[in-house]
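Homework help board

Subject: predicted structure for assignment chain

Our instructor gave us this sequence and asked us to write out the predicted structure in token form, then describe one feature. I got the tokens but I'm not sure how to describe them. Can anyone check?
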Amino acid sequence: MQKKKYYLETIDPTTIHIKVLYNYLQQDFERIELLPRFVLKRNLKKGFMKAVYLTDGQEKYGYAIYQQVDEFGGIFISYLAVRSNFRANGLGSELMQQLKDLSANGILLEVEDPEAAKGEQDYTDRLRRIQFYERNGLHLNPNIKINSFFVPLRMMNNAERTDVYDITFYQKLYNRIWGLPLGSFFVKENQ
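My token output:
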């Protein structure tokens, strides 16, 4: 049996493509985790954010939405998911590998802090996500915890230079996406 060849397909930021992508986001993420569709659309059209599908040319298996971060030459992943009917087949790891190949200088992303979990199942789910990223070469940054829009988060990365990002770095990323200085109000260090 021949192994499928997967690749990243850039999502064209037309209204219809953004609508399809946003429908996937609504299936895979809690409402509170989602950027409003008009914010996502504006950022994709301006090129501040990029979106890709993991595909074999026939099927869309998963997707990622990210920002290129010039300060360290890597990417900051805002959303990453494998569509529910394709999970548990190694496609999440394939998507991560494709993103690592895209960004040789590193990947940054946020995960929900397990210490702030609301119950045992929530704790298990958060820990499982962290373990997935660890298996794919990322690690928790022990030096930074943030509270973003009232959600306690931990930062994970595989970047060699972690000195380039701190709380002000994250606030700038949020300001860029929102187009307003919301980061300084809604992204705080969580001790």
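Reply (TA_rk): Your tokens look well-formed. For the description, you could write something like this. The longest strand covers residues 60-69. That's the kind of observation they're looking for.
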